[in-house]
Write a structure and sequence with these properties.
Number of domains: 3
Largest sheet: 8 strands, mixed
CATH topology of the largest domain: Alpha-Beta Plaits
Radius of gyration: 22 Å
Structural class: alpha+beta
Helix content: 40-55%
Strand content: 15-25%
CATH class of the largest domain: Alpha Beta
Low-confidence stretches: 181-187, 242-250
Shape: globular
Mean pLDDT: 86
């Protein structure tokens, strides 16, 4: 109702200034333009929310970034993606808690973020997959073009995940010294925790809390969410097999290309959505890609697959 009332108020405001301008009040043109711009933003938000009808779209999310092939460039690319999502979350008014970062020589090996707020998972599920960067490498003295990859995982953090039963015998718990910035404490104690679920090989880690106990609790949150998501996926894969469908996506089967050279464009391989303002995208402007993904899901009745939008420009 709040959203609907906001739409009504904005529409009435725009109609009022439009009437004044039509009657010759040219001084109100600026107010009309501002009001119309505000109305567009509210309508876009309402339309996006209308597309969020998935079972877990309203839930919080756990986003994990892993550097892939590409050496130093891939480590740097993973860090660029981390910054992009943090900036995006800030612009959306979501709470972004950085749970774990694994520093590398020229960026990061991995990072995990707890994302909470309105429709956190519903908005972020469009980002799950492999992201490909093409640019002139800042680490290549010959200034050659390099391609690097990073993988983004997104799982919903839902109440049911807390009920996932995990036998203590199935866990391998490692403690280690936290690395990276964070003051004297993180460098002097083995407070970081890495938990491996032996039957599945699923790993969860946390090092950003000040105590080992707190890091273990956060790592268990991640582990339970991942295991619950795995159970859901296994059920869906079984149903897909019964239907004769194959929706498996392999590593390297990128969902989105970010090309900085020889031209500038970001293009989603599932929906065809693109934006030539690459720096704006890397600064967190992801609405065009999220919206096009949700529209494709609504149109197809399933997630769009890489390559469905046609051939790549690059």
């Amino acid at each position: 109702m709040e959203l609907w009332n906001s739409l009504q108020e904005k529409l009435e405001e725009v109609a009022f200034f439009a009437e004044m301008v039509s009657e010759g009040e040219e001084s109100e043109v600026g107010e009309l333009e501002r009001g119309f711009s505000d109305l567009e933003q509210v309508v876009e938000k309402a339309e996006t929310q209308a597309l969020l009808s998935g079972e877990y779209d309203q839930e919080s999310a756990i986003l994990t970034i892993h550097s892939g092939s590409g050496g130093d460039d891939a480590q740097d690319w993973a860090q660029i993606l981390l910054r992009m999502y943090l900036r995006w979350g800030e612009s959306e008014g979501l709470k972004m808690d950085l749970a774990e970062t694994s520093p590398a020589d020229h960026g990061i090996h991995s990072a995990t973020i707890f994302v909470s707020g309105e429709n956190a998972y519903g908005l972020l599920r469009s980002e799950r997959g492999v992201h490909r960067l093409v640019r002139i490498s800042p680490f290549d003295s010959a200034k050659r073009r390099h391609t690097s990859f990073a993988k983004v995982d997104v799982v919903p953090e839902i109440a049911k995940a807390k009920d996932v039963e995990i036998r203590s015998d199935d866990l391998k718990i490692d403690t280690y010294r936290s690395s990276g910035a964070g003051g004297q404490h993180v460098n002097k104690t083995d407070s970081a925790v890495r938990i491996t679920h032996l039957p599945t090989g699923v790993v969860a880690a946390c090092q950003n809390e000040r105590s080992q106990h707190a890091n273990k609790e956060q790592a268990m949150r991640v582990l339970k969410a991942k295991l619950y998501e795995m159970q859901v996926q296994q059920r869906e894969e079984h149903l897909s097999e019964l239907r004769g469908e194959n929706t498996e996506a392999a590593w390297g089967y990128q969902i989105r290309n970010y090309v900085l050279h020889p031209y500038s464009i970001v293009k989603d391989r599932r929906t065809g959505a693109e934006d030539s303002q690459v720096q704006a995208v890397l600064d967190g402007k992801l609405s065009i890609f999220i919206r096009s993904y949700l529209e494709a899901c609504a149109r197809l009745g399933r997630e769009p697959l890489p390559g469905e939008a046609g051939s790549d420009d690059d």
